Amino acid sequence: MNEQERIHLAIAHTQVIRPPEQLLATFGQTNIHYYLLTEPVYSELQGPTATPETVLREGRVLAEQPKLVTPMYMQRLEGFGQEARRYFDMVASHLGPNAPGLLYTYKNEPGNLSILSGNLPSVAERINADITSRGEKKAAIIRGLDELWDVSLLRFIYQLTENSVSQNVYELKAHGLLGIDHRGVPTEARVKIEEMFIQLQAGDISPSVVKAELDRWNLFEEYQDRFFAALRKTL
Hints:
Layout: H1 3-12, E1 15-18, E2 30-39, E3 53-63, E4 67-69, H2 71-75, H3 82-95, E5 101-103, E6 106-117, H4 120-134, E7 139-145, H5 149-174, H6 187-201, H7 207-216, H8 220-234
Parallel strand pairs: 2-7
Antiparallel strand pairs: 1-7, 2-3, 3-6, 4-5
C-alpha cells in the first residue's frame, strides 16, 4: 500500500464520535479539546484472549479567528511554493483578484498519550459520559488509525471548518464586514488594521507585524504617516 492509499484508508476510518457542540467562532479564537481514540498497532499480534486496549491521544486544536482575504492578498504571503502561487493566480483570473475568501489557521497542542483498558467503543462511552458530566461544549471524540492518527485529526479539522463556513460568512455579512472598498480591501481587513495600530501604540505588537500586514494589502503608502507616528510614540 503506497502513501496515498494509506492516507485514503485513514480518512475512510476516521469517525467523529462526538463533535463539539459549538462551531468555529467568527470573532475570536476557538479552543477545541480533542480525545483521539485508536486501536493499538500491536492489537493484531495479540491473541483472542488478550485484554483489549485503546490508545488515547488528548490535546487541543486552537483555531484563530477566520480572516477575510483575497487572491491578491494570498499571493503576497510568504511560505508558499510556486505551485501554490500558480493556484492563487488561477483563482484570481477566474474570480478576480479581490474576490473575498476566508483563511483559517490552526495550531495543534498535543497533550497526554495513554493506553486504556477496554475496547474502543467502551472507552469512547466512558469519555463521552465524562464530557457530558462536565458540560464541556468544545470537546470532540474522534476515532482514527493508530499509525496515521494525525491524518484523522486533520480530517476532523477539515470537517469542522466545512461545517462552520456558512455561519462565519453569515455573521461577517451581518456585521457589514464582507464589503470590498475601491482598492480591493475587505472592510474586515481595515478593521483589523485599526486594531493593530491600537496594539502598536500600546506596545503589544511588533512594528514589523503591522508593516507586513500593510504590505500584503499594498497599503503601506496610505498608512505610512500613521505608522511612523505610532512608531515614534513607542520609542
